[in-house]
């Protein structure tokens, strides 16, 4: 693969197969934002420190600013646009991170966003830590799970509270009745 | 006529849906067709003459459209005016947006490349050959003021931007007769707003933006998309600097990813990008990258304060002196040394002190320019007075809380002239402190501390007061200061033909929820359903003029007042039309939920009224003219002072001296609380930012002027695991001359964080009170105190 | 090579490296561990990184592929040569990390960060094996974040082996750290302070490794 010119890239984004011509030096974040027109993924540092560029890549959270677009060939990428909104009619595969829309609703209730710039990253990382904790979710684990996502506006309380709330409910014993 | 009392306090934010699904557009999400990209070449040295710039190689690289140097900028622009130039004999630099002969800080822009892509532009920046003749870097304010110090701006006699002094009573001479005097030397580190979204601008300057001919030498309409908190001021500054008529200049603000004052200043990058567009004939986009932000976005806080407090034997404070020296940068930002100067007004805080003497001095050094950061200068003024009181409490062996209660301004003294030029207009300051103490006591904080201490842990509680100047400010007073800006707000409220309402405001949203709060204010005053109201901001063509922009905590007291009054006016028009449509007297009507009703069930909806007003005029008698719109300009009588008290619980780790904040409780009085969730979010978010500057964030330089903190690895902002459990409580004393009944609250959280954490740490460790003099806290210093406790 | 977030789920690895999960949880963030690799961390050689220190404590051998098809093996003790520098040549690729299987490895790990989650200001990893006779063998004490590379504190290791679990002797052994690390003044912290942190992390790592359960502390 040479350093100049462009390369053909085949990639699945939000359930759709797409083809792009990319420069080898383009990051995945740049591909998503500039060529795929998906600007919901934000760039806050280009160094992998802030988490604003977090996406779902082959089922895992990845900092799209730290990956070259060409490394994403033949991979399955989901961005906030695909994860937060109801799927279009022609979407054939199910949307992953099924808990994300619920977490988004909790964010609204708990005032877990102000400027919204960190929010897509927080939703993805938050849903993943919520799902990973299973029945053992608590504030400590959520704070650890979100340790790579910077928020400068809210002071995090609403964000952490939302993840605990949503995933506590999800993993509670279905046989036990929730008190009214 | 009875109006509705609906306040919509529980409404969830209207901003949220588009932010949660990633569809809301920020500046880097916009890109007109044909946009070129600009990258800045920045000085790698702190102080030097620009010996030569060779752009030949750079200009000839494929994809490069133009390379601009200081010479180009000087042909296309004039020096940038300073917004806060109000101190007598404040000096000027006459600097342009780009360095021409001298660089004065690492990061100072020396050239700019416009290219097809940002990547090509950055490669071409590296290809510019620049020779610097190094000059000695001036990094220390004391050294900067020595007689033989290198002078940063050659037309100045020294490195002082300005000095100001404010005295009350007998000033500092009153200290001599005090029974007890305590002196402290205080030091606050450098920090900055650091919003997660960096700054950015798209400038599009061409004939294509305006139908018709060129006029008065302009080259067409200049459209600027910019994530600025002050679109009107930017428009005026660009007009002045670029020689374009304001009417030929449109500024549009997209969603902003946090401002915190960092985006309230105006910057050279905007000017340079506009010139680039003019030269290239294409839209040009600049996005500041993260590593640039640490050297290019205004720095803040950084000050040394020499302070004395004098009191009677019983603890009545008789005098307070503070000499504040601010560490400015190599160039002057749009707020001059305003944040340092504020100590001359805010210095005595929540207390009645008959004799005060505050001096402030701004000293230039070879650092990034100094500007706004949430709280402005009040957090450092707060640190000075609250630390002084703690040190005094220690000296007199009086409990720090009792000493405060003894000296706070009392409610019956309101409005209270603090002697330094501020009128403390309303509130019960001691009650806020009492409530804070009561709430944390009831929540078991003191028991927790006792428990922890018995287990060998170092845990403590700090309780301090704050004031917050909001609703900047009366326009005539500002003009006389002198300033080149007013403080009024203009609002336009318009009902359309379907009965929905648009509120046009000059404020900008940056996360603080104005699209919700101002909709609530309008809906309440008008009698509309809040879901029928849309707030429009950020477009200087359609939105009104705000004297000062979104800063100085103006939305709730000033903008909301203008929106409320305009909405009331509109309500009058609506009721008049409704009376005609229903054939009833206005006195018989009630208005609520976007409809007007009569006493026996008759009703017209806003939709009905809108139709009549715009499309079916035949339904209305002759005296009604078409359309429904109201405009109101509210000029504040004066600033209105928010206030409160906060308590924090901290733990100091015995191994490391590192501090964790465990709990936070605030009692804040911002008058009428428009939206409790939003207001609490402002208080907590502000607190966490200054928790950062108190414990972990600091912008550092080495002695040669090289910045040492240029990534998130070195500039440590609080993470989720660093924040305490936070609760907020409100008092709602309505300010007497603010129509909306609200004071501002955006900066409340920042005010007392440093002083509260310092006192709490002192409570946790041996050594009494008042010995913490330096921010950020030094773990080493705390370990020494722990060593003293451990046998 | 193996992604960092895969390491914690390998049974064999966790069996022989009891602190594996604790160490991995400190490496970067969940968002970087999905892509970062073990080998990548070793070759990046960040002085504040945990994995280089861990593999130094494990006596790893590094297998390196060379251009032209040959391979060579580098003992980890010679691998880290300075601040972000390794013995790897520019045409070489780290392909394998080998660690000797030692029965009954007891390990401790402690690091100090400025915030709740950060690059380490100071960190230590301690390891020892329990011989059939009940004595301590193969003691390893490694510090990281304090100099330009992770360092084995051999004098501390000898002192720990001689201490045979006596708590007072162990504390003295940890105190030897003071004279063995040479931290520079950093942006936020003085060398003096970091030395103090060094002693603390070594002490805590030793406590972690030689916990009461293992029968060493009497």
Task: Summarize the structure in words.
- The complex is a heterotrimer of chains A (180), B (791) and C (218).
- Chain A has 180 residues and is an alpha+beta fold.
- Chain A is 33% helix and 14% strand.
- Chain B is an alpha+beta fold.
- A seven-stranded mixed β-sheet of chain B has the order 3-5-1-12-9-10-11, with helices on both faces. A six-stranded mixed β-sheet of chain B has the order 7-15-14-13-8-29.
- In chain B, strand 13 and strand 14 form a beta hairpin.
- In chain B, helix 16 runs parallel beside helix 17 and helix 17 crosses helix 18.
- The termini of chain B are far apart.
- The longest helix of chain C has 19 residues, at 191-209.
- Classes of the chains: A alpha+beta (180), B alpha+beta (791), C alpha+beta (218).
- Chains B and C meet through helix 21 of B and helix 9 of C.
Topology, element by element:
The complex is a heterotrimer of chains A (180), B (791) and C (218).
Chain A: E1 7-13, E2 16-22, H1 28-35, E3 54-57, E4 60-63, E5 76-78, H2 80-84, H3 100-109, H4 119-133, H5 139-145, H6 157-171
Parallel strand pairs in A: 1-5
Antiparallel strand pairs in A: 1-2, 3-4, 3-5
Chain B: H1 16-20, E1 36-42, E2 48-54, H2 56-59, E3 64-69, H3 70-76, E4 102-103, E5 109-115, H4 118-126, E6 129-134, H5 141-144, E7 160-168, E8 180-188, E9 200-206, E10 221-226, H6 231-242, E11 249-252, H7 268-280, E12 284-287, H8 290-296, E13 303-311, E14 317-327, H9 338-341, H10 343-346, E15 355-363, H11 378-396, H12 400-407, E16 416-417, E17 423-424, H13 429-442, H14 445-454, E18 458-470, H15 475-480, E19 489-495, E20 501-505, H16 514-526, E21 533-536, H17 555-582, E22 590-592, E23 595-597, E24 603-605, H18 606-614, E25 628-634, E26 640-652, E27 659-669, H19 676-695, E28 725-731, H20 753-764, E29 774-775, H21 779-789
Parallel strand pairs in B: 1-12, 8-29, 10-11, 14-15, 20-21, 27-28
Antiparallel strand pairs in B: 1-5, 2-4, 2-6, 3-5, 7-15, 8-13, 9-10, 9-12, 13-14, 16-17, 18-26, 19-20, 19-25, 22-23, 23-24, 26-27
Chain C: H1 4-7, H2 11-16, H3 20-26, H4 30-33, H5 38-44, H6 50-57, E1 61-66, E2 71-75, E3 80-82, E4 85-86, E5 92-98, E6 105-113, E7 120-130, E8 136-144, E9 151-152, H7 154-163, H8 167-175, H9 191-209
Antiparallel strand pairs in C: 1-2, 1-5, 3-4, 6-7, 7-8, 8-9
Helix pairs in contact in C: 7-8, 8-9
């Amino acid at each position: 693969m040479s350093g100049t010119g462009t390369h053909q890239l085949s990639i699945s984004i939000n359930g759709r197969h797409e083809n792009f011509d990319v420069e080898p030096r383009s990051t995945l974040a740049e591909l998503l934002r500039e060529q795929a027109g998906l600007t919901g993924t934000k760039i806050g540092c280009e160094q992998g420190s802030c988490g604003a560029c977090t996406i779902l890549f082959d089922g895992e959270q990845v900092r799209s600013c730290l990956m070259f677009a060409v490394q994403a060939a033949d991979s399955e990428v989901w961005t906030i646009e695909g994860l937060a909104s109801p799927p279009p009619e022609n979407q054939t595969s199910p949307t992953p991170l099924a808990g994300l829309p619920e977490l988004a609703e909790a964010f609204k209730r708990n005032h877990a966003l102000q400027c919204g710039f960190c929010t897509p990253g927080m939703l993805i990382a938050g849903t993943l830590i919520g799902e990973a904790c299973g029945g053992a979710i608590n504030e400590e684990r959520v704070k650890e799970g979100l340790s790579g996502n910077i928020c400068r506006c809210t002071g995090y309380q609403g964000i952490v509270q939302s993840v605990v709330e949503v995933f506590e409910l999800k993993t509670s014993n279905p046989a036990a009745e929730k008190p009214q | 006529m009875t109006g509705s009392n609906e306040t919509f306090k529980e409404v969830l934010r209207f901003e949220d849906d588009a932010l949660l699904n990633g569809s809301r557009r920020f500046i880097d999400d916009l890109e007109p067709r044909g946009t070129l990209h600009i990258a800045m070449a920045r000085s790698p040295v702190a102080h030097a003459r620009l010996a030569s710039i060779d752009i030949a190689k750079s200009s000839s690289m494929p994809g490069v459209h133009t390379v601009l140097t200081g010479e180009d900028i000087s042909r296309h622009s004039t020096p940038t005016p300073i917004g806060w130039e109000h101190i007598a004999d404040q000096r000027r630099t006459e600097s342009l947006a780009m360095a021409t002969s001298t660089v004065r800080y690492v990061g100072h822009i020396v050239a700019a490349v416009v290219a097809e892509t940002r990547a090509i532009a950055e490669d071409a920046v590296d290809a510019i050959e620049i020779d610097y003749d190094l000059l000695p870097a001036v990094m220390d304010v004391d050294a900067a003021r020595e007689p033989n110090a290198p002078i940063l701006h050659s037309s100045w006699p020294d490195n002082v931007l300005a000095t100001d002094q404010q005295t009350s009573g007998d000033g500092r001479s009153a200290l001599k007769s005090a029974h007890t005097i305590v002196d402290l030397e205080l030091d606050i580190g450098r920090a900055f707003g650091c919003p997660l979204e960096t700054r950015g601008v798209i400038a599009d300057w061409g004939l294509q933006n305006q139908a018709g001919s060129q006029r008065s030498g302009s080259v067409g309409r200049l459209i600027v998309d910019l994530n600025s908190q002050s679109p009107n001021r930017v428009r005026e500054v660009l007009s002045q600097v670029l020689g374009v008529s304001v009417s030929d200049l449109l500024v549009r603000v997209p969603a902003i990813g946090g401002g915190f004052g960092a985006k309230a200043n105006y910057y050279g990058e905007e000017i340079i990008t506009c010139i680039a567009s003019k030269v290239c004939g294409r839209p040009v986009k600049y996005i500041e990258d993260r590593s640039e932000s640490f050297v290019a976005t205004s720095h803040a806080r950084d000050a040394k304060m020499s302070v004395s407090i004098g009191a009677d034997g019983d603890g009545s404070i008789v005098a307070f002196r503070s000499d504040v020296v601010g560490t400015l940068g190599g160039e002057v930002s749009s707020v001059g040394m305003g944040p340092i100067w504020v100590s001359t007004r805010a210095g005595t805080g929540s207390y009645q002190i008959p004799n005060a003497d505050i001096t402030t001095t701004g000293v230039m050094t070879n650092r990034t320019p100094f500007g706004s950061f949430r709280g402005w200068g009040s957090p450092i003024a707060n640190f000075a007075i609250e630390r002084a009181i703690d040190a005094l409490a220690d000296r007199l062996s009086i409990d720090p809380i009792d000493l405060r209660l003894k000296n706070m301004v009392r409610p019956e003294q309101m409005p209270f002239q603090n002697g330094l030029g501020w009128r403390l207009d309303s509130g019960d300051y001691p009650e806020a402190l009492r409530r804070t103490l009561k709430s944390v006591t009831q929540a078991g904080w003191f028991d927790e501390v006792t428990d922890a201490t018995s287990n060998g842990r170092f845990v403590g509680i700090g309780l301090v007061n704050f004031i917050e100047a909001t609703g900047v400010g009366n326009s005539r007073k500002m003009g006389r200061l002198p300033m080149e800006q007013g403080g009024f707000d203009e609002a336009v409220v318009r009902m359309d033909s379907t009965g929905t309402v648009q509120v046009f405001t000059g404020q900008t949203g940056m996360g603080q929820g104005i699209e919700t709060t101002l909709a609530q204010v309008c809906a309440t005053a008008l009698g509309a359903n809040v879901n029928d109201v849309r707030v429009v901001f950020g477009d200087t063509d359609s939105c009104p003029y705000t004297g000062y922009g979104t800063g100085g905590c103006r939305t709730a007291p000033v903008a909301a007042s203008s929106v409320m009054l305009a909405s009331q006016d509109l309500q009058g028009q609506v009721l008049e039309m409704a009376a005609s449509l229903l054939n009833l007297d206005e006195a018989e009507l009630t208005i609520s939920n976007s409809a007007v009703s009569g006493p026996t069930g008759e009703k017209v909806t806003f939709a009905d009224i809108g139709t009549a007003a715009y499309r079916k005029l035949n339904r209305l008698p002759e005296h009604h003219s078409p359309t429904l719109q109201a405009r109101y300009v509210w000029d504040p009588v004066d600033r209105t002072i928010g206030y409160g008290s906060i308590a924090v619980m901290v733990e100091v780790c015995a191994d490391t001296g590192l501090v964790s904040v465990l709990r936070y409780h605030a009692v804040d009085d911002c008058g009428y609380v428009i939206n409790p969730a939003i207001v609490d979010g402002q208080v907590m978010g502000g607190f966490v930012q200054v928790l950062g500057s108190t414990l972990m964030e600091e912008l550092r330089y080495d002695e040669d002027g090289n910045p040492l903190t240029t990534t998130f690895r070195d500039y440590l902002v609080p993470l989720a695991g660093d924040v305490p459990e936070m609760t907020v409580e409100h008092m709602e004393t309505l300010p007497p001359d603010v129509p909306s009944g609200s004071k501002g609250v955006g900066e409340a959280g920042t005010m007392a964080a440093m002083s509260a954490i310092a006192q709490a740490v002192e409570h946790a460790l041996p050594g009494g009170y008042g010995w913490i003099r330096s921010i950020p806290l030094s773990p080493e210093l705390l370990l020494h105190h722990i060593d003293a406790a451990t046998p | 090579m193996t992604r960092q977030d895969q390491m914690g789920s390998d049974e064999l690895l966790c069996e022989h490296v009891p602190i594996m999960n604790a160490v991995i949880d400190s490496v970067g963030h969940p968002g970087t561990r999905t892509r970062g690799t073990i080998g990548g961390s070793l070759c990046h050689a960040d002085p504040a990184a945990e994995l280089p220190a861990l593999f130094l404590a494990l006596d790893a051998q590094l297998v390196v592929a060379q251009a032209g098809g040959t391979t060579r093996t580098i003992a980890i003790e010679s691998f880290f040569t300075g601040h972000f520098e390794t013995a790897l040549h520019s045409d070489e690729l780290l392909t394998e990390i080998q660690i000797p299987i030692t029965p009954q490895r007891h390990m401790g790990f402690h690091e100090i960060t400025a915030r709740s989650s950060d690059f380490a200001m100071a960190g230590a990893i301690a390891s020892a094996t329990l011989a059939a006779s009940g004595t301590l063998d193969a003691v390893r004490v490694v510090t990281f974040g304090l100099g330009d590379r992770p360092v084995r504190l051999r004098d501390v290791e000898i002192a720990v082996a001689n201490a045979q679990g006596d708590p007072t002797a162990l504390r003295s052994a940890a105190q030897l750290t003071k004279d063995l690390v040479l931290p520079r003044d950093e942006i936020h912290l003085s060398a003096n302070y970091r030395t103090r942190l060094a002693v603390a992390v070594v002490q805590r790592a030793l406590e972690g490794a030689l916990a009461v359960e293992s029968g060493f502390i009497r």
